[in-house]
Amino acid sequence: MKKINIVLLEPEIPQNTGNISRTAAVTGAALHIIKPMGIEVTDKHLKRAGLDYWHLLDITYYDSLDDFLTQNKDEKMYFFSTKAPKKHTDVKYPERVFLVFGKETKGLPEDLLKDNPDTCVRIPMRDGLRSLNLSNSAAIANEFITIISIVCFIISIFWVFIFARKFSKPI
Description:
It is a single chain. This protein has a 7-stranded parallel sheet. The protein contains 5 helices and 7 strands, in the order E-H-E-H-E-H-E-E-E-H-E-H. The model has no long low-confidence stretch (mean pLDDT about 85). The longest helix has about 35 residues, at about 135-165. The radius of gyration is 18 Å and the shape is globular. The two termini are about 35 Å apart. It is about 40% helix and about 20% strand. Strand 2, helix 2 and strand 3 (about 60) form a beta-alpha-beta unit.
């Protein structure tokens, strides 16, 4: 299975961060939170949305975007933005991947998107509608990568089975 890392840049809404933490905990994804946060980790809404999963999280905090990028400079990152030309389904994700999401009110910084055009992706949406909720976007991206890795595994098992049957001799 792929190691998925969900990255939140300066999250602002406790319920979104709580829902994403719950998604990360139950799917085994790591959660990375880049400060400053518009919320407190002790916020009752965050804890309620995250329920009893907070202690199960693989969570890392960073003081700034620069801090995060420096500490993870060798990692493969995909930057989710409504402005990206490439769909998230058009990417072949590596075994270890960082899915980076911007703050709810502003998204990711323009210069970050401009500096990483080949790894900017979007979740397709109907024209004229507001963007998806942050927690829904993180869940969609996480599940897509998980499902694709499972399908690839099943296909590889299928081909091993076909190959073994074709070249095995009856006893």
